[in-house]
Structures are given as C-alpha cells and as structure tokens.
Write a structure and sequence with these properties.
Layout lengths: L1 H14 L5 E4 L12 E4 L6 H14 L13 H11 L6 H8 L1 H10 L7 E4 L2 H11 L3 E5 L9 E3 L2 H15 L8 E5 L5 E9 L2 E12 L7 E7 L4 H16 L4 E10 L2 E8 L7 H9 L3 H9 L13 E7 L5 E8 L7 E6 L6 E2 L8 H4 L2 E7 L2 H12 L2 E7 L13
Parallel strand pairs: 1-2
Antiparallel strand pairs: 3-6, 4-5, 4-6, 7-8, 7-10, 8-9, 9-12, 10-11, 12-16, 13-15, 13-17, 14-16
Helix pairs in contact: 1-10, 2-3, 3-4, 4-5, 6-7
Length: 408
C-alpha cells in the first residue's frame, strides 16, 4: 500500500508519544498496531462526514489535537479542529496553500519573490498569458499535488498540448479546476522543511532535488544534508512565504527554485513532505518532524534540537518506458548504509509514465534510501544501489489499451 510505504514512519513516531485515534477512508490494516481507535469515513474531504466523525471521537476521548499529513485533507481538518476547539491553522491559511493562484497573490502582496502567474480558463487565454510572460512557461492545475498535471511549454507550438495536459488534471480537482500559466523559474529546485510554533518559524533542513527532463517535473531523487550551506540562503524567504499564506502552527514543506543563486517561491505545502523526506530529515539531523507536528497540534513546543549531523538520500525508481513489469529484484546483500529498499509494484503490473498519460502512482516502481556522513557520499551510495536493481519492462505499444484505474 502506498500509504504504508510512505507514511508508516509518521504514524509510528506519533504513536510512540500519543494515543492515536484515526479518521480514515478505509478499514485500517497496517495502522492497527499504532491506533487506540478509528472511525472510517468514505470521503474525508466531505466536511459534514469528517466533522461527524470528529465529534463522535470527541465524545469518547479527551482530544488534545488533530492534524493530517494528507494534502487533500488540509482544509477539512483545519475546519474540524476549529469546530472542536483544538489548536490549528486557520482554514483560510490551508486554502491559500491548496490554491496556487491564491498563494501567488499573497506572495506578491507580502513581497515574497515568486513567479509571474496567470489563471486561465481556456487555450486562447493560456496562449495570451504565455506571450505576456514569455516562453518557456509552466502550466499546472491551481489545486493539485505531486506534480500531477505540471508541464513546461517552450514554444507556442507546444502550448496546445501542454494546456490539454494540465487542464485534464485540473478537471479532476474539487477545490479548483483552474489552470495556471506561470513564469519558468530556471534553476535548481530545493525544498525547505520548516516548523512553525505560535507564529515563529524554524528552518530545520533543506532538501536538494533531482527532477526529470522537460517537459515534465517528476521528482526522481532527494538528498538532505544537516550541514547544507543553503540553509542560510533560503531561511528568510521560506519563513516569509509561511507568514504570507497565514500559517501560524505546524510543519511545512516549502518548494523553492534558485534563480541566479537567489530563492524564488514555487509553493508552500502546509504539511510534512512526501517521498520519505521527513524520514531523510531524521536520518540526517535527528529531528522528528511527525512528532513535532503532533506536539504542535496539541499546543506543545516541539523539540527541534539536532542530534545528528550527517546526510541521507532517496532514489525514486521509474522505468525507462511504459509497459508491463516483467522482472524486478535487488542483487546482493544490503550494505549497512542502505537504509531500505521498497518496491510498490510487482511483476505483471502495468506502468504508465506521464508522457503516456500516467503519473507518479502509475509509473513509480519504488524507492531506496542511503545514508552517509556527507551528501555527496549519500547520493553516490544511492546511485550505486540503483545499479544493483534489476528492472525489465515490456514496452507498451501505442495502441495497447490502458487498464481501468491507471489514469487516476
């Protein structure tokens, strides 16, 4: 299960310090050892259903706090916390994180360096916006996640295809179906892992990223180094962005591009990062972000004292082509520095890359994590381990049908 593969470490950390009662969309399985109780709600984005579940739990337990690490639940959970009288960010702040058009407006209002951005309704408006901004441009859904529907267009000839790609993803959204046309920020991408308590933000780590070649923005690798010199470069801008959207409490994942060495905001995510980044932070620094999020949700000051100074890297595994997975394995004994190898697909599964209409859930095969004293060595070890993974994919033909459910 994807949730287990990427969020078990979060639940395990929180359950070590708190009794956990869970609201979830399906009967718990791997979560059971960490739970005191659970309420199943078919759709946690349904505010009425979520609120009813929260009130039911409040009659059984003295609830101290509520939070989520799931992107789609940020606004409903903030509203639930307010209804229950528990500490939380304002729902409006979470709405600002979820809607990138709102974020851009707030960044501009508060003087946070960002990207030129225009919300468009159709291809003609997208073309006009691109001409004003200047190519290359990035098209993206205003309210999605995990780089779904994000694509670059370098020329007017590429714009029509790019708009259809972004618009299809945007059409699946509940919070907004708008498409944004934005200035392309040309430079390396990093994320800034931040903790805010009672309005004061602490930057705890910088994550250096490797993304796929244009036109897509699939994230392929991350690396966290406790001694990263970029910490001093990005701290002021990340903190300003968090203030601009109105976050006063919690863990945030702030995405930035360095243009000519200077940070420009991509977006603020009001939650712990995905892709095991929180786990990388703990391996590199000793700081426990899930525990910090739980403490803050209960209005307790988090412990952000570093207890390590090392590095950790994750390689996210993708096939070279869409098709059927025929062989998957890892050659040899795991060295001590290989923290884990995880496969989320198995032989016989169909893999579909973004170029063929897929996304990270339909294409990613799994991941591996390596640790080391320095970022350079952690990345080298991760790349070394990747070379020992055996992947064989039978190429998908152009006329081969896509299995139901792959185009999520």
């Amino acid at each position: 299960m994807e949730a287990e593969a990427y969020r078990r470490y979060c639940l395990q950390s929180v359950a070590a310090a708190y009794d956990v009662v869970l609201i979830t969309s399906e009967e718990p399985s791997w979560e059971v050892p960490y739970l005191r109780d659970c309420v199943v709600v078919s759709d946690p984005t349904d505010q009425a259903a979520l609120s009813a579940a929260g009130r039911a739990l409040a009659t059984r337990y003295d609830l101290a706090g509520v939070f989520t690490w799931t992107e789609w639940y940020l606004v409903p959970v903030a509203r639930l916390a307010r209804q229950l009288g528990l500490p939380a960010n304002a729902p409006e702040a979470m709405q600002a994180c979820r809607n990138k058009a709102t974020s851009r407006s707030l960044f501009a209002r508060h003087g946070v360096p960002s990207a030129a951005s225009v919300s468009v309704r159709n291809q003609a408006e997208a073309g006009a916006a691109a001409r004003r901004i200047g190519y290359p441009v990035v098209l993206k859904p205003a309210a999605h996640a995990a780089s779904v529907g994000v694509i670059r267009a370098d020329t007017p000839e590429q714009l029509a295809t790019a708009f259809r790609f972004a618009d299809q993803a945007a059409g699946l959204g509940r919070e907004s179906t708008s498409v944004l046309v934005e200035e392309y920020l040309d430079g390396p991408e990093v994320s800034v892992e931040c903790v805010t308590y009672r309005g004061e933000t602490t930057v705890v780590a910088v994550t250096r990223k490797t993304v796929s070649a244009p036109p897509y923005f699939e994230e392929l690798a991350h690396c966290v180094d406790a001694a990263d010199p970029l910490l001093d470069v990005v701290t002021l801008v990340a903190s300003a962005a968090i203030r601009a959207v109105g976050i006063t409490n919690g863990v945030s994942h702030v995405e930035v591009r360095l243009v000519d060495g200077r940070p420009r905001l991509v977006e603020v995510n009001g939650r712990i990062a995905g892709d095991m980044i929180g786990h990388l932070v703990q391996l590199a620094t000793g700081i426990d972000l899930p525990r910090a999020a739980a403490d803050i949700a209960c209005d307790r000051a988090p412990d952000l004292t570093p207890t390590r100074s090392s590095a950790a890297a994750i390689q996210l595994l993708y096939p070279d082509t869409s098709g059927t997975l025929h062989r998957l394995g890892f050659d040899g004994v795991n060295p001590r520095w290989l923290e884990r190898v995880h496969f989320q697909h198995q032989v016989g599964d169909q893999l579909l890359l973004p170029a063929d209409g897929g996304n990270m859930w339909t294409a990613r095969i799994g991941y591996l994590i390596a640790s080391a004293p320095t970022a350079e060595l952690a990345q080298a070890r991760a790349e070394q381990a990747v070379r020992r993974i055996q992947i064989d994919v039978a190429r998908r033909t152009a006329d081969e049908p896509v299995a139901d459910g792959l185009l999520a």
